[in-house]
Amino acid sequence: MKLTTRKFDALIIGAGGAGLRAALQLSNADARVAVVSKVFPTRSHTVAAQGGVNAALANVLPDSWHWHMFDTIKGSDYLGDQDAIEYMCRAAPKVVYELEHFGVPFSRLDNGGIYQRAFGGQSQNFGKEQAARTCAAADRTGHAILHSLYQQNLRARTHFFDEYFAIDLIKDEAGYVLGVVAFEILSGEPIVIEAKTTLIATGGAGQIFRTNTNALSNTGDGMAMALRAGVPLEDMEFVQFHPTGIAGRGMLITEGVRGEGGFLINGEGERFMERYAPQAKDLASRDVVSRAIAIEIREGRGCGKNKDHVLLDMRHLGTDTIMKKLPGIREMSMTFLGVDPIEKPIAVFPTCHYSMGGIPTNRDGQVVVPVKDTPEDPVPGLYAAGEAACVSVHGANRLGGNSLLDILVFGRAAANHILDFLKENRYHRPLPQASVDQALERLSRWERKGDGEAVEPLRRELRKVMEDHCGVFRTAEVMQEGVDKLRVLRERIENAVIRDHTQTFNTARIEAMELENLMDCAMATMCSALGREESRGAHSRVDFPERDDERWLKHSLYSLLDDSMDYKPVRTQPVTVESFPPKKRVY
Ligand SMILES: Cc1cc2nc3c(=O)[nH]c(=O)nc-3n(C[C@H](O)[C@H](O)[C@H](O)COP(=O)(O)OP(=O)(O)OC[C@H]3O[C@@H](n4cnc5c(N)ncnc54)[C@H](O)[C@@H]3O)c2cc1C
Known about the structure:
Largest sheet: 8 strands, mixed
Structural class: alpha/beta
CATH architecture of the domain at 243-350: Alpha-Beta Complex
Helix content: 25-40%
CATH class of the domain at 243-350: Alpha Beta
Number of helices: 16
Bound molecules: flavin-adenine dinucleotide
């Protein structure tokens, strides 16, 4: 069989905000760019982002990038790399104004400036008064951003491979990454896309948990591809549980509701967040609010007949504010709960939302691996950005509004570094056939027949194991059981088969390969969580309830080889300002 091969300067896997921001930068600089996406670009999960993007514009309240930097470091529970955080917060106003010029229809203040709302963990004056830093287009900010970026890319003539599934990276003996083997979902035809540089922008792995706010396509494919190419994953134990998912269903109710003044109440009608975070109350950091809800329910103060959720009340905001600032939330609540939030509070519960961990990169988006004596060596030709990457700006807990910022800042930064790389690496390297064959083998493996188990029940089981053994509160015993269960599942997946070889065969093959990717990400998460014997940010160990800076102020690195763990230091030195040393984190 003759394989179709296409050649580009730069390949981008993923058409969410990170991929499209990078592609635009490259296309505008006249590089030949290809973007591969398994879903149509504007259906990437970025489209679902509601609340907004952070930048210290000071349009509503006084603000500075330095305060933003402090909040982000504190929010990360001091695990974030301070040089990268400084870079991101300084760049924020610029990338937001760029968006405005790309045509993003931000909500407006009376004076015409971009509307900014308050979000959790934001402060003025290094932890004092609440700030208002989140730039919003009503409660549909991601939609506005993704569509504008897509249109700009069409204008810049970026080449799109829509509805192509990337299987595995191509890597040569010298360690260069030279593109990807993908397949067209419609025809099932494999294709080799060769490129001098490859950027992974495949988003998060939220689908490893049963209840989550993510798109079905967020299966951690890029993270698993990196693992299989020998790159360890960083800080995978840090999974953000968003405090306000619709109870029992998982759809997200934006933090913007609390930013506009909504609050949480328990079964006794009490505003319980006042007890957990006396100053910030409902706008404490997400890990803090999620834990508070879990404790209220565990101690019997939940709402409803099963006392298994709490309520988010926004009735006092009034019809006008809800209709203007939160129209999408109202719609979602009416559709999925049959509840109009103008009249009744919404039932909510913490839900898996965001992967803080991912593929380790430096500030230029280069994928870095720990090598003896030098902590970080770039993998030539390989880049990562967005939720798939770990720069790390979010550390142990991400602040709301900082992820849209992350994808824009580091999508752009990676593209700028790629342009430099292209200047020095002008020719394509020879294609290593063995690596191509290995990727193709992953595809043909699923043509096997036999009496193995089917894919979907295995996926359900995997997600249930993660929910039961790696949730908001964790212990060694429960997680060890989880690792054992995952190991058994991994073997069962190796023997699984696609039962239905009829017209849905290509989508069935994708689901099967996604299951393999979910498996790798789940194992990375569970092993990293078991390894970290402290509580920090989103990682809460009942058996190690305190943060332990002496032993654990370091990043975890999980490798596929023997499920082994390694660690590397946190970069605590910013570039131009003083470091923020770890302090007790109170809100
Ligand atoms: C409901 C919701 C609301 C949110 N609200 C906010 C908010 O208000 N503010 C904020 O800052 N953050 C928010 N976030 C987080 C933020 O939106 C995401 O972290 C961010 O958009 C991720 O962007 P991305 O470009 O990294 O990936 P995504 O947007 O997830 O895109 C991933 C891309 O990779 C492609 N892809 C994946 N695997 C493959 C494969 N194997 N082959 C080919 N293509 C592949 C997909 O097709 C897709 O194009 C929210 C998240 C959710 C889920």
